[in-house]
Amino acid sequence: MVLRYRRRGGLPWDDSELTVSKKKPSGVRTDARAAPAVSSGFRGAVRLAGELLQFDGFTEDGLTFVSHAHVHVPAEAERLVTSVITARLLGSRARYALATPYGREFSLGALELRMLPTGHVPGAAALMVRHQRRTLIYAGQLGAYGEFYGLAGAVAEPCDTLVLDAPYGAPGRKLPKPQTVLKRIVTFCRKAHGDSVAPVLLCARLGLAQPLSALLHREGFGVQLHRSQHRYLGPLRELGMPVGPARRFEGKLPPDGVLLWPLDLREAASLDAAGPHRCALVSARALRPHAADDFGCHAAFPLSEHADHPRILDYVSRASPRRIYLLPGTPPELAAALRSRDREVHRFGPPAQLELFAT
Ligand SMILES: [Zn+2]
After folding, report:
1. Angle formed at CA 208 by CA 46 and CA 243, multiple of 5 degrees
2. For strand 80-83 and strand 63-65, is the pairing parallel, antiparallel, or unpaired?
3. CA dihedral angle for residue 29, residue 32, residue 36, residue 42, rounded to 10 degrees
4. Core-most of 29, 183, 231, 271, by most CB within 10 Å?
């Protein structure tokens, strides 16, 4: 099977081709109209029944669409399709990737493909798959307030089938306006300085940390980032994203300093180099009750790169799919909220394969 670019709309192309295995994946049902089947042969991949195309998961004989740079890409992965920005952020792990910009049409065998922005993190894309007048969108994770962070907002297009991963999409989960939360973060940082302790903001490695560093710089803070967050600044700056001049933390914060630090390293000994400090959680997890206590923080701020419940509902209503598949990280309450008389909702448990086109 050959993955082929096609010239459309006068866009600047190259005519590269990527040859992938002709071998049919084992255990895959080839009847595209059969009910969704669960197979133990895949490692976390959602895969189209009878096709080589899989989403955010990896098998030796598959071709993987990588929706965004949070997805763990094995070093040995060779057959990838992703957005240009995600390929840049993945660095050497995407050295064999076929990278295309949003909106460009290309094909894989009989499948017509196009990427759409999801507003989750820089480069995050949904993959729109068209075959015999039926359309599937694998959206992966959607974002909230992407425009506030300088990202393209989520674009929903009508489809028959939608695949979503919505870890913060449960009913009742609603993010406040980011401008309001940013003001509260600024107050937290100034109060910490007033109390002679360093403010430390715990957030994900990629997504919020980089634009937040620019926003806090504008407020007059000397922002520093952990190296795992700082490493993205160069590529993002080259891509024209608003990331500001934050420095990499090397053991010393200035008196007006704010330190951004990965949430999962909050207990690392290297954080002690910041001296007396006060931590705040910056994440959609802040919407949970007792979030600050649960993470050993003084405060929790619900600023997030993830879509909340109203944004998921809005995306679904614009895409208007007849069938929705939710990935395993999605709370079951969202499945119940999305069900209606005309809409089927399924929640996957990994590993799984996917019926492409609902009848
Ligand atoms: Zn993500």
Report:
1. 120
2. parallel
3. 50
4. 271
289, pLDDT greater than 80: yes
166 alpha carbon – ligand 1 mean position (Å): 10
pLDDT at 5: 35
Per DSSP, the residues of 190-203 read: HHHHHTT-EEEEEE
Q: What is the whole-number distance in angstroms between the Cα of residue 72 and the centre of ligand 1? A: 10
Mean pLDDT, to the nearest integer, of 75-96?
A: 91
Q: How far does the centroid of ligand 1 lie from the alpha carbon of residue 169, in Å?
A: 14
pLDDT at 7 over 70: no
Domains of the chain: residue spans and CATH: 2-172+307-354 (3.60.15.10), 178-301 (3.40.50.10710)
The Å distance, Cα 57 to ligand 1 centre, comes to: 14
How remote is the CA of residue 306 from the centroid of ligand 1, in Å? 8
pLDDT of residue 35: 28
Cα 194 to middle of ligand 1, angstroms = 35
For residues 102 and 117, the answer to whether their CB atoms sit within 8 Å is yes
- The neighbourhood of ligand 1, an ion, using CB within 5 A, equals 70, 141
Residues 6+ apart with CB under 8 A from 140: 55, 56, 67, 68, 71, 118, 120, 124, 125, 126, 163, 164, 165
Q: What is the pLDDT of residues 173-226, one digit of tens each?
A: 999 999 999 999 999 999 999 999 999 999 999 999 999 999 999 999 999 999
Q: How far is the CA of 120 from the centre of ligand 1 (A)?
A: 7
CA 106 from chain centre, in angstroms, equals 22
> Ligand 1 centre from 8 Cα, in Å?
30
Whole-model pTM over 0.85: no
User: CA quadruple 237, 241, 244, 246: dihedral positive or negative?
Assistant: negative
Q: CB neighbours of 137 closer than 8 A, spacing ≥ 6?
A: 116, 126, 127, 128, 129, 156, 157, 159, 161, 162, 163, 319, 321
Is residue 169's pLDDT more than 90? yes
Cα separation, 202 vs 72, whole angstroms: 21
Instruction: Please give the distance, rounded to the nearest whole angstrom, from the Cα atom of residue 121 to the centre of ligand 1.
Output: 7
Q: How confident is the model at residue 48 (pLDDT cuts 50, 70, 90)?
A: confident
